[in-house]
């Protein structure tokens, strides 16, 4: 095996293929074309004079050599990520790029105006926002900051709780008598809400399921049934009526999180300070304390007794 001049970009190709199991998946992870991954893998195998993957109908399976190279690449990636975090953590400038990850619901219902305000305050900081409900990995620099609802923040991260997200049952004002429900499907990954609906005895009445909270909001808004929604999102819609009190078992803390190596970075500190201050003024919205202009209804008869629930990314 000719190991001379083995560049890091080639190691990244191998590692991405192992992680994703396909060239297409590796291309998406790396942000390059399928043809680029195919070409560079072929060139690397020619350079090393060894086959790194077995091509099967179901995907690419690493050979012993490929697995060995991917293991080495993973160690190198960890070292590079750690060095980058330490270097970024020493940056005292209120400029540069901040990569933020949050959920689509939070971005659309709460954070867009807040982030716009931050950018006006700090015009030399470039914000890159990743909207995703998937698990986030700040250790691998997927993002610098995560804004997430969770009852159990990862022990590897540091941050602060900036609020408590309340949820309640809503229905369209012209469909107050409906017994149909809108709910999450399995891909949303919201077991706490699934348990609540089962406990409430409304699971069988769920006629519409969707894999995002924004999709659930749209379903309730169009009269497809009643559904559990974050109060900060649903209370803004004059066509919706809240028909329960806040559901205690579904209340979820809202966290700002970052990696310990980045906590003293000037732009991270500025972001934390700004969002904590602004979100501090939004506690009534987060807690579902409805303004007098919104109509309310008595507690929904379907709400069950309180029970423990897992956090969900609302």
From TrEMBL:
Signal peptide (from-to): none
Domain HTH lysR-type: from-to ranges: 6-63
SUPFAM superfamilies: Periplasmic binding protein-like II (SSF53850), Winged helix' DNA-binding domain (SSF46785)
Pfam families named among the record's database cross-references: HTH_1, LysR_substrate
Residue ranges, annotated region (Disordered): 285-314
Keywords on record: DNA-binding, Transcription, Transcription regulation
Family stated for the protein in its record: Belongs to the LysR transcriptional regulatory family.
PANTHER family documented for this protein: HTH-TYPE TRANSCRIPTIONAL REGULATOR, TRANSCRIPTIONAL REGULATORY PROTEIN
Name assigned to this protein: LysR family transcriptional regulator
């Amino acid at each position: 095996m000719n190991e001379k001049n083995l560049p890091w970009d080639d190691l990244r190709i191998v590692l991405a293929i192992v992680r994703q199991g396909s060239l297409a998946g590796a291309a998406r992870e790396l942000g390059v074309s399928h043809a680029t991954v195919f070409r560079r893998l072929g060139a690397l195998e020619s350079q090393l004079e060894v086959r790194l993957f077995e091509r099967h109908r179901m995907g690419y399976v690493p050979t012993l050599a490929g697995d060995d190279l991917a293991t080495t690449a993973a160690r190198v990636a960890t070292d590079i990520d750690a060095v980058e975090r330490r270097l970024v953590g020493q940056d005292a400038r209120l400029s540069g790029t901040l990569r933020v990850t949050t959920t689509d619901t939070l971005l659309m219902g709460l954070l867009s105006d807040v982030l716009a305000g931050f950018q006006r305050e700090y015009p030399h900081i470039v914000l890159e926002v990743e909207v995703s409900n998937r698990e986030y990995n700040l250790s691998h620099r997927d993002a610098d900051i995560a804004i997430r609802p969770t009852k159990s923040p990862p022990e590897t991260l540091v941050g602060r709780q900036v609020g408590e997200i309340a949820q309640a049952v809503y229905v369209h004002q012209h469909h107050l008598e409906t017994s149909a429900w809108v709910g999450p499907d399995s891909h949303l990954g919201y077991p706490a809400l699934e348990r609540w609906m089962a406990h409430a005895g409304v699971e069988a009445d769920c006629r519409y399921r969707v894999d995002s909270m924004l999709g659930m909001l749209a379903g309730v808004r169009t009269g497809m049934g009643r559904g559990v929604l974050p109060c900060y999102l649903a209370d803004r819609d004059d066509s919706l009526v809240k028909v329960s009190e806040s559901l205690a078992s579904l209340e979820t803390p809202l966290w700002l999180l970052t990696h310990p190596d980045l906590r003293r970075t000037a732009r991270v500190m500025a972001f934390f300070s700004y969002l904590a201050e602004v979100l501090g003024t939004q506690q009534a919205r987060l807690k579902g304390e409805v303004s007098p202009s919104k109509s309310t209804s008595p507690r929904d008869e379907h709400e069950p007794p309180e029970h423990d629930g897992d956090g969900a990314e609302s």
